[in-house]
Design a protein that fits this description.
It is globular, with a radius of gyration of 22 Å. With about 475 residues, the protein is an alpha+beta fold. It has one domain: Anthranilate synthase. It contains eleven helices and 26 strands.
Length: about 475
């Protein structure tokens, strides 16, 4: 995951300005972040926020956050900090923990200098609104795991520079914090000298992926949504379904590496969320970005075509998407929804749409992508923005709450991390986040892939099924197994 620098100015680190630095900044020799990632691949908690599509300006920076000092989790309606139950909903607890720590803005040469990193699962939306919950938690996956990191390895993939950033948190007092920061940085630098072993090739399974819904059932459930749309109940709903496979032998981190090779994406990432969960994501979609000055951006995706087999076919498919009234309408609905959600916490008059239905191309698909921007009003913070917008409109529908109720009624299982968000929350007040799509959820027993699309009045169920296959095939190919589709 990354943050682009368009319209933003990052000042030099305090140490470089000659002032008193609140952050230990140590430049290290350049090495590709996906190689160093292997050094912490066996850790129970770590976060690799990977600007894997380095040619994309939003993929400029990558971050490797390791050895956290605090773990926040939510499951079954209960929230814990370091395993101990605490009062409050997940958003309140996250806000409270973030308020305990501070790094001055501009203390690092990159946007993220340390803070909290983790995932917020789709079902956290029920903490914000009264919504039905038909499905049990069949995979026993938490609704949230967020870890606080005092050490981050940061990578600028355009300039090919890298740093160890160490804040010294949670130590109190300038002297204690400075000593801890230097000590932690030295330990990380020592570990970087170890040889790196990287597995080659995909993990292998003797069995293939099992779709939860066959083509006929998938299309039948879309028809149910179309009945609600034609009756005026909703305008759009995002329908998805899972594919499952027994977890093959090997590391979850190697599964991410396989996914990364076939589907590099600007908001890719790998999270180790304890001994029973890992998330490998190749998301192309930003959810929310907020800089330390309160400037907001979201980039909803709606509208998809596969890449062509040659340059001529590729151009034709991109032009077809750009001219599609159906896909454009799908995108516009979500832009309006996100404008409305952001306006709940933004300064009056600050919300704008600088880019509408632009074509963006990724290794396996073309997408229509829009941009909505704004500025937080005085007194509002990034967690207020999350509360106003979560989960993202592009993976729910419009009107949002009614669409979410129908998603619960029509889909075959709960979503878990999928369609939630992977996010970093800087201790300087900034944040960036993705929508968790094009993602594999890895448990000790199973690997889960999920995909779908937005259903609108002129959706064709058979075409929607084919679009889902285009999106999910790169995920399924991350495991070498008998062909499922």
């Amino acid at each position: 995951m990354s943050i682009d620098t368009a319209g933003l100015t990052f000042s030099a680190p305090a140490a470089l300005r000659g002032g008193q630095a609140s952050l230990h900044v140590q430049e290290i020799p350049w090495r590709a972040p996906d190689a160093l990632f292997a050094l912490w691949a066996d850790d129970p908690y770590m976060a690799f926020l990977d600007g894997a599509a380095s040619a994309d300006p939003r993929g400029r920076f990558s971050y490797l956050a390791v050895e956290p000092f605090r773990i926040l989790a939510a499951a079954s309606g209960r929230v814990s900090v370091d395993g101990l139950p605490v009062a409050g909903d997940p958003f309140t607890v996250l806000e409270r923990e973030l308020a305990r720590y501070r790094i001055e803005p501009g203390a690092a040469p990159v946007p993220f200098a340390g803070g909290a990193v983790g995932f917020l699962g789709y079902e956290l939306g029920r903490c914000l609104e009264k919504l039905p919950a038909r499905h049990g938690n069949d995979l026993a996956i938490p609704d949230m795991v967020v870890a606080c990191y005092d050490v981050v390895l940061a990578f600028d993939q355009i300039e090919q520079r890298a740093w160890i950033l160490s804040s010294g948190l949670p130590a109190d007092g300038m002297i204690a914090r400075s000593a801890r920061a230097e000590r932690r940085a030295r330990a990380i630098a020592k570990k970087l000298r170890r040889p790196v072993e990287i597995a080659a090739g995909a993990l292998r399974s003797p069995v293939g992926w099992i779709p939860e819904l066959d083509p006929q059932e998938y299309q039948a459930r879309i028809r149910i949504l179309l009945e609600h749309i034609h009756a005026g109940d909703i305008y759009q709903a995002n329908f998805t379904a899972r594919h499952l496979i027994p977890r093959p032998p090997g590391k979850a981190a190697d599964l991410y590496r396989s996914l990364r090779r076939s589907s590099p994406a600007p908001f890719a990432g790998y999270l180790a969320c304890g001994p029973r969960l890992a998330i490998a994501s190749a998301s192309p979609e930003r959810f929310l970005r907020v800089d330390a000055d309160g400037r907001i951006e979201t980039r909803p995706i709606k509208g998809t075509r596969p890449r062509g087999r040659d340059a001529a076919e590729d151009r034709h498919l991109a032009a077809e998407l750009a001219a599609s009234a159906k896909d454009r309408a799908e995108n516009l609905m979500i832009v309006d929804l996100m404008r409305n959600d952001i306006s709940r916490v933004a300064e009056i008059g600050s919300v704008a749409v600088p880019s509408l239905c632009a074509i963006e191309s990724f290794p396996s698909v073309h997408h229509l992508v829009s941009s909505v921007v704004g500025r937080l009003r005085p007194g509002a913070g990034r967690i207020d923005l999350l509360r106003a917008t979560f989960p993202g409109g592009s993976i729910t529908g419009a009107p949002k709450l009614r669409a979410m109720a129908l998603i619960d009624a029509v889909e075959a299982a709960r979503r878990g991390p999928y369609c939630g968000s992977i996010a970093w929350f800087g201790f300087d007040g900034a944040m960036d986040s993705s929508i968790v799509i094009r993602t594999l959820t890895v448990t000790p027993e199973l690997v889960v892939a999920q995909a779908g699309g937005g259903i609108v009045a002129d959706s064709d169920p058979a075409a929607e099924y084919e679009e889902m296959l285009v999106k999910i095939r790169p995920l399924l190919r991350a495991i070498d197994c008998p062909e499922a589709l």
